[in-house]
Amino acid sequence: MSGHSKWSTIKRKKGAADAKRGQAFTRLAREITVAARTGLPDPELNPRLRLAMTRARSESMPKDNIDRAIERGSADTGGENYEEVYYEGYGPGGVAVMILTMTDNRNRTVGEVRAALTRSGGTLGENGSVGWMFDQVGLITVAANADADELALLAIDAGAVDVQVEDDLVEVWTEPQSLHKVQEALAAAGYEAETAELTMRPTTMMAPEPDVAVRALKLLEKLDDLEDVQQVYSNLDVPDEAFVEARP
Description:
Blueprint: H1 6-21, H2 23-38, H3 47-58, H4 63-74, E1 83-90, E2 96-103, H5 106-119, E3 123-124, E4 134-143, H6 148-158, E5 162-166, E6 169-174, H7 179-188, E7 195-202, H8 210-224, E8 229-234, H9 240-246
Antiparallel strand pairs: 1-2, 1-3, 2-8, 4-6, 4-7, 5-6
């Protein structure tokens, strides 16, 4: 398996900034609520809920917020009923984009996603138009001050399929069903995960010319800032010069 870009780094940094203004907490609460509603409210019996709660704690989300989100999902409160919807499309240069949303109004959400794509020179595609370019995988990140070689051996023994050092993090990739098992093995050995989540990993990357890459990167950020968007995945491989130019 292969595929990584600086867009992952950008999302991590954006996540830290989002938490300060509450956007990350809103997204995490929606994921917890939907996870609790579509499965059991017990994280020990609901892997999706367990992962959502782990992510929330890693973002320092208060326990009261987590508990309220679970309660909303496990009780008929008559409030907002969010559903998970994927949208697929193409950005500048034909870059593949997958957008995961949580919405209580599909018409509003698809209109906002389509507008963001169109204004940036992209197009909204049909279901399946780019999904085949991505694999669902588990991703665990650990601070790079860990012994990467030792961590890699331990992770692979526990069922990981790939380990990479990227910037300030060690990335451990797993099959979806092995994510929790690998995370527990790392924790037992003293390697505390910064994040553990299911994600979409591109099977091949696209590296357009720098000017096109800048426009594609700005589109990804624009989509990521939409209220109903939970995650944005892309096969964009950002050249260093484009990465620098796209920064504010």
